[in-house]
Amino acid sequence: MLALLRKEPGAEHVEAALSTALMSAVNLAEVATFFVNGGMPIDTVRTLLTGLEVKTIPFEDDLAFGAAALRPATRHLGLSLGDRACLALAKREGLPALTTDRAWADLDIGVEIRLIRD
Questions:
Q1: For an engineered disulfide with 40, which of 18, 34, 35, 64 has Cβ 3.0 to 4.6 Å away?
Q2: pLDDT single digits (tens) 76-116
Q3: How far apart are CA 68 and CA 72, in angstroms?
Q4: Do 85 and 24 form a contact (C-beta atoms < 8 A)?
């Protein structure tokens, strides 16, 4: 999402996926925090992110346990809770996870990983 909003390389891949994209509430918080840290008022951040019309999925028990279960397979790569929240949602929904993090490509966790940058 940050690649899209910051118009970074790979943004076109995110834009193409927006109509069917899902985002964990944890990842929404990460994106919102990025912009707040940059000095953007929270109301402006809310308007920016809700304008994308990406469906936000609550981080409920099944996703929390799913993210925790991914820890052993991802610890060596140093994946954060946010990373694992994204992957747990993709796994549960049977959707690909889009990322700029090349380390994810080596994961064997039952999730299709799509790198959005070459």
A1: 35
A2: 999 999 999 999 999 999 999 999 999 999 899 999 999 99
A3: 8
A4: yes
For the record, the structure tokens of 104 come out as 């994810």
Q: How far apart are alpha carbons 88 and 11 in whole angstroms? A: 22
Supply the angle between the helices 61-69 and 81-93 in degrees, to the nearest 10.
110
Q: Where are the domains of the chain?
A: 2-115
Long-range contacts of 110-113 (CB under 8 A, 24+ apart): 111/87
Q: Helices in 22-60 by DSSP H: which ranges?
A: 25-37, 42-50
Domain 2-115: state its class. alpha beta
**27-86 pLDDT, tens per residue?**
999 999 999 999 999 999 999 999 888 999 999 999 999 999 999 999 999 999 999 999
Strand partners, 98: 114
CA gap 85, 67 in Å, rounded: 5
DSSP 56-118: EEP--HHHHHHHHHTHHHHGGGT--HHHHHHHHHHHHHT-PEEES-GGGGG--SS--EEES--
